[in-house]
Amino acid sequence: MSDFFYDFYNFPEGIDTMSDKYRDHAESYKILIDLLLKDQVQEKPLRSERDILPILSFIHHYIELMLKAITLKKGKQFITIHNLKNLLSDIEDLTLSGESNSFIDLLHSLDPEGKGFRYPTDKNMDENFVNDNPTMKKGVSLSTITSGFTHIKKDLEEEYSKE
Predict the structure, then answer these.
(1) What pTM was computed for the model?
(2) Of 36, 64, 95, 135, which is least packed with CB atoms within 10 Å of its CB?
């Protein structure tokens, strides 16, 4: 494998606006998520049930970046939070499919701020994912994650592409 130098200070040609920069950043996450989900679909044995958490964290962050890109493209200032439902409600005239809305609801019900996907505990050292949340008890299937991500990335890309 040849070595490659990553120049973090420059964006690809044509990416000049801040909304395009957020979308470009999201695109990098989308590429990685697609690779990770493809790897999981090939039925490789999991080391732990928690192996899905980094993928969910990347999905959460991808959606967050895209919602912020759309907000900027509409000429608004986005709110600097990580809660997808709040970010979503801040964007007027956003059209998402029922599947995409359900997927965001699922992610929100599991981890509203996306922090539990990244850390085993909160700031008080209380463990994440050990409470009586019905969604957590029920769990989530890989097919639900894959399907939800397929719908949300399609909808967000279409929304971003609107004039």
Answers:
(1) 0.89
(2) 95
